[in-house]
DNA sequence: AATCAATTAGTTAGGCTTTACCTACATATA
DNA sequence: TATATGTAGGTAAAGCCTAACTAATTGATT
């Protein structure tokens, strides 16, 4: 029992390490070493909406509009988002993620995808089926 | 191939989600919602040394000594570390992690351990052996 | 239909608090 | 005297705010 758990721990520690190396690599590739957790959180909200106006973003993040203006200006400098003027209403801007912005907020998913690619590469089709069958049971 | 990868992705996404729920739970349990990544980084350095003096910590983190004093005072308030006066030299203090401090910087390991416990609980011994055998191959 | 006031979206200016640093100087112990 | 740590006071950046501004739209009124 304990021996098994020990083994499992070491095996999964290795897998988690591989994944976190992938995500560090992806994030480093964006060239924004000083990005903060808060900023990533806001990028994720923008990603969730696909496109969002300043007012709506102020509303959903419970911030004032000037705070959002400032934040978005910084994001534009960082090349994470861009502004798109609305055709219906000239006062309105839609905030969209750039490629880089998407990479940052989907970093963990991309890293996980790389990990599964590595598995696909190292394992046979049968082994993968067995793996899926067993791990499906874990709740 | 692609189908397999898709399956693997979903299965592991679930496992990673379970683990990250565990680590959030552990961290929330510490009652320090405003702790920063920098602070956690410094706690990990203290953990690595086991016990460390102010001067040494200033040296290894490339900070000035007053910066360390200030940081440690905050950590003491947060109940993450305590000071222990050296018996050999009354000028020297050793900085040690409290239980809470250890919990914070070993949070990811504890979460991984909880995940493997869940696996142990959900799977048979044979399944675990198969799992270990297969996953050992992933590089 | 033309116009002008009110409303709305976003910006600018200026200010506050906290984090995370610093230097210069003070205190206690060796 | 030299060394370990502490105190005082200061800086820059992050992340927030309010008040006042500009530009576009809406809608009531002539």
TrEMBL record, chains A, B:
Keyword Transcription: yes
Domain of life (superkingdom): Archaea
Pfam families: Staph_reg_Sar_Rot
UniProtKB keywords: DNA-binding, Transcription, Transcription regulation
One GO biological process term: response to stress
A molecular-function term among this protein's GO annotations: DNA binding
Record bears the keyword 4Fe-4S: no
Domain HTH marR-type, first and last residues per copy: 5-139
PANTHER family for this protein: HTH-TYPE TRANSCRIPTIONAL REPRESSOR YETL, TRANSCRIPTIONAL REGULATOR, MARR FAMILY
Listed name of the protein: DNA-binding transcriptional regulator, MarR family
Lineage, uppermost ranks: Archaea, Methanobacteriati, Methanobacteriota, Stenosarchaea group, Methanomicrobia
């Amino acid at each position: 029992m304990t021996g098994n758990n020990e083994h499992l721990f070491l095996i999964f520690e290795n897998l988690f390490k591989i994944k976190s190396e992938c995500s560090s690599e992806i994030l480093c590739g964006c060239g924004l070493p000083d990005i903060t957790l808060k900023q990533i959180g806001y990028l994720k909200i923008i990603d969730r909406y696909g496109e969002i106006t300043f007012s709506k973003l102020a509303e959903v993040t419970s911030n004032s509009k000037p705070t959002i203006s400032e934040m978005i200006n910084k994001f534009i400098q960082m090349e994470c988002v861009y502004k798109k003027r609305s055709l219906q209403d000239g006062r309105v801007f839609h905030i969209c993620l750039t490629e880089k912005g998407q990479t940052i907020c989907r970093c963990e998913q991309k890293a996980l995808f790389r990990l599964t690619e590595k598995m696909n590469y190292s394992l046979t089709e049968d082994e993968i089926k067995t793996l899926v069958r067993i791990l499906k049971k874990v709740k």
